[in-house]
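Archive entry: two folds, one per protein. Generate the first.
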Amino acid sequence: MLTGLLHEAIRAGLGAVLLLAVGTAAAMWCLFRRRAERRWRAPAVVRPPTQEPPSPAPDTDLDRGVRDIRRTDRGFDATRFAGYAAMMFRDVQSAGMARDARALRDRVTPTMYVELEARGDRLRASGRSACVAAVEVTSEVTEAWQDGNRDYVTAYVAGSMQSHTVDDATGQVVDGSPTLPVVVAAFLTFLRPAGLNFWTLSLIQEE
């Protein structure tokens, strides 16, 4: 009988050990499976933080001036006008070379016309001629405004040109250089009656 009890105990102990081993194996299998799932799981997509759109830059005096001019001239274009300012600068230099401002009479104010004519008169009286060549300039509008019933625009013209003065009798250079370029830097101001009217050059300010 004692032997039978011993065998029963041994069988019970082996059963417990077997159950423990099976439970441990199952737990280990679950653990390995979870680790494998973590290892092969696709990484989460990292999304950048939402960025607020930049606030628009505040209007400048030039922006407001252009907007005022466009109230009566919707087609006004500051970039196109800058090209016109550069052309006017070249034409003024050519008029000085010819000592005759009549070609500019309708494109400049009466005051500016008198000044150009006076410059030509001084050259003729002194027996000298102005020579200008290789005028290479660019221009940009720097100011625009409306005052009452008039529009105003100022453009900055910069670049280089060849400029010298010769004696008419001898042909000798008396001022400047026929080969060395000089720096160009000037502000040209134009005005007109507000609306679709012709611009006239009113002032040249050299730096």
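Generate the second and append.
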Amino acid sequence: MKKIAILGSTGSVGQNALEVISRHKDVFRVVGLTANRNVGLLARQANRFDPRLVALCDISRYSELKRSMDNPRKILKGSDGVNEVASMPEADIVIVAVSGISGLPPLISAIRAKKVIALANKESVVAAGPIIMGMARRMRVQIIPIDSEHNSIFQCIDERNKTAVHKMFLMGSGGPLKNVSKNVFEKLKPHQVLTHPVWKMGRKISVDSATMMNKGLEVIEASHLFGVSTSKIEVLIHPEAVIHSMVEFTDGNIIANLFYPDMKIPIFYALNYPKRNRSCLRRLDFTKIRNISFRKPNVKNFPAIDLCYKAAKKGGTYPACLTGANEEAVMLYLKGKIKFTAVVDVVEKVLSRHKSIKNPSLDEIFYVDREAKEEVRRLCLRS
């Protein structure tokens, strides 16, 4: 039986992971759960799965969580508590599903504890890819991506084929705005962009999907996870969302990964790796697929993709500045402080003013992240 700790258990990925685990109780057991501030859901999850450790990042709501627990157990507070769950001795696999750069410290903690990591936090890899991947190699830590695109590439490439990769294709459904005129983008309210046509996701990633920043960040993440230049990674719009990624090899062969668009499928794969166990999850019915189409993304309507390629090419702390600025801009949009079109515009402006650090330390990455967020607030909220 594999023992699982889930960082970010109240988010979309965390909830899907717990559903997978609940269907396979003979294979998996939950030993740790963490959340940012969703006390009610975290308490219900803890009461149901009975982990040894529970951590709440929001210290102000600790007493509320404690009152909501059915059974006495160890409850940890703050980011230190999350880091403790990330490195708890009995965990075999740590699912890192914390949103944003706040996922970086517990990810580092899990790597240092030599845990198998099921990763669903792209911002940390984008901002600190060389540090994370270098540390994982030195510690001989296995990182298995959970996001459908990177999980698919992981499955398409095995150890024998790593050096024979010619190109990677990252698929995107096109997001909720793929058929919406750019003329109305400025007037879009959060409720209009939060409903994705294929995936059920959290609020931040849903906005990133609408701007297509998410796809650009995935390009940078893939370059670090698989050790390839971003020039070898191409984004394709595939509205049917049955092919999740493809890898073309030097001999001209292309391997594609297909599955019904359900996050529980790559999660189940990651938790069982390297085995392939039988699941009860929904399967593709090819007789119901009427069309499979591809097209290039409309970079005129969605400039965030090119912005990410440029940040990756410049390197240094540009990617960290990118993720920090975007995280803050999305938050301001969700709070109604800025227009939808301002999200990518302000990120581009912050990047244009950034003075990069060539080989940054972790402290420098966190500094750049804070500065980028402060700059977004200065630009957007000044009177």
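Annotation attached to the second fold: The chain has two domains: 2-145, 151-261+294-381. Residues 151-261+294-381 form a domain with the Rna Polymerase Sigma Factor; Chain: A fold (CATH 1.10.1740.10).
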